[in-house]
Amino acid sequence: MKTFLILLVLALIASSCGFRKYVWFISIGYGAAVALIGAGQLALFRHALTVGTALQCVLFILYGCRLSGYLVYRDRKTAYTRRMKGEVKQNDGVSFGAKLAIWISASILYALQTSPVTFRLMNGSGTDALCVIGLLISAAGLTLEAAADLQKNWAKKKNPGRFVDTGLFRLVRCPNYFGEMIFWTGVFVSGIIICRGAAEWICALLGYAGIIYVMFGGARRLEIRQDKNYGADPEYQKYKSTTPIMIPFIPLYSVKNHKWLVA
Asked: Which of 24, 180, 190, 222 could disulfide-link to 28, CB 3.0 to 4.6 Å?
């Protein structure tokens, strides 16, 4: 597990930006950690890479750089930070102990999420059918997530006071979260047959279950915020009651009352 611990240290380094601003542990630091883990995998296994495994590492770098870059842009160029005040913890209200706990736990999650690729490299599994299938699924998720973020930006520039229900948002209310889940589903699928022993299986399962939980928790926060901002709008109420919140064509329209989704 020496390699896993090295990658965990890289995640800790990348996500340490959260000590400057608490929410960055799970936003900008998240993307930076995934990108640095991908770079670390390329460096650690540079003599054993195949086309498929190299592409998986590169996909982590692309994913992380896109996410962190988008979040930095959003924080600096939009009113998002002002809107989020009161909804996420600010630095002044968080003790050092709490920051330390979220830093370590989040970094462990990032290392677990990427562990199927780490284990494929450690076990010398190379490129097989599941590696290719996982790559294709992850690439589709990354494309969907990026497209959803762009569409939301365009819609908000055109009509900043209205909820977004165009483009991908016609199919699902959180297409960016849906794309994120698809991305990590691809990563998990790619490792189904290469995990050796209970420890590797537990790591892969915890990482996948963890990010799915986090995405549903994010959808709950978004729903609460949108209800606050647009709840009096009949068009929003119709949109909310007819458009699934997380997965297209799956009739789950609200998670607001699921208080166990506290991520």
From this structure: 24
pLDDT per residue as tens digits for the range 8-67 = 999 999 999 999 988 899 999 999 999 999 999 999 999 999 999 999 999 999 999 999
Q: Are 189 and 133 in contact (CB under 8 A)?
A: yes
Distance CA 96, CA 102 (A): 10
CA distance 195 to 175: 30
Answer yes or no: are the C-beta atoms of 115 and 201 closer than 8 Å: no
Cα distances from 174 to residues 92, 97, 163, in angstroms, run 30, 32, 12
The set of residues, in sequence order, having a beta carbon less than 8 Å from that of 229 and lying 6+ positions away, is 163
Radius of gyration of the chain (CA): 19
Contact by Cβ (8 Å): 250, 244: yes
Phi and psi at residue 85, to the nearest 5°: -60, 130
Of 110, 93, 87, 82, residue with least CA distance to 25: 110
The tens digit of pLDDT for each residue in 160-212 reads 889 999 999 999 999 999 999 999 999 999 999 999 889 999 999 999 999 99
Q: For residue 159, what are its two tokens?
A: 């009509």
Stated as kind and residue range, the H or E segment containing 262 is none
Asked if 150 and 175 touch (Cβ cutoff 8 Å), the reply is: no
Look-up: residue for tokens 């199919």?
171
